[in-house]
TrEMBL record:
Active site: 38, 163
Coiled coil residues, start to end: none
Residue ranges of the motif GXSXG: 36-40
Keyword Hydrolase: yes
Protein name: Predicted phospholipase, patatin/cPLA2 family
Organism field: Pseudobutyrivibrio xylanivorans
Pfam families per record: DUF6363, Patatin
Location of the PNPLA domain: 5-176
One BP term from GO: lipid catabolic process
Gene Ontology terms for molecular function: hydrolase activity
Motif placement: DGA/G: 163-165
InterPro entries linked: Acyl_Trfase/lysoPLipase, DUF6363, NTE, PNPLA_dom, YjjU-like
Amino acid sequence: MKKGLVMEGGAMRGIFTCGVIDVLLENGIEFDSAVGVSAGATFGLNFKSKQIGRPLRYNKIYCNDKRYCSINSWVKTGDLYNVPFCYGTLPYELDVWDGKTFYDNPMDFFVVATDINTGTAVYHKCDNRDYTRDGIDIRWIRASASMPMFSRPVEIDNKLYLDGGMADSIPLRFMESEKCDRILVIETQPADFVKKPQKYMGIVKMFLGKFPNMVKVMRDRHLMYNEEKAYVRQKEQAGEVFVIRPSVAPNINPTEKNPDELQRVYEMGRAEAIRSLEGLKQYLA
């Protein structure tokens, strides 16, 4: 039996996922393959490196630090989340990411990014074993979480990438293509959530007009997202996948600066995971 894990993004809604994966780690629940999108990649990698509490900890400590996330960084560099700090100073000096454990862990770990020229999702397997500051896998993880308009596209092998959630927000079908028999999906919105059309297409075109396929993907993203939510629900009702999601909307700012709010959403994730734990164990058995 092959077990898979799917982690949705959603900016700081991803702190909900942090609560879930910490409970999984504490209870020794493992998977053969995992895929993370956006925050599901940047926070979810800590599941593979087995670092309980790490993303909550550094977000609470640095959420108000201008080196981490600020309008000043966006104006000066084009990145709301400052790249040298977020992908250099923080994980390699201040709250160290355990790259050795990450790569020694046999679980396959994929991240999703969107090719801004084609508008299609690209699935990268993080198996390069280069855990230096500018390692190829770190660049793919950064690409997966690079929010359109608030981040510069990430160049990898002469191609440009942005947030994977634009093209594939909940990559259950990808995990099914990996031939997983049992799949846990961690969503960051309630079951009845319906995404609405992008309100600011004029601004999107201003920033990304040179990439018409990316503009189209963002225009139609709500259709893709709502279809994927429905597909997850269909599979869940058929007993083919197991889902852990918030019972109510997390209602957290995408760039939340209040540590108490981060803790609140993290505890939501823990509570849902604990409530689902016995059912999940039976499903995975």
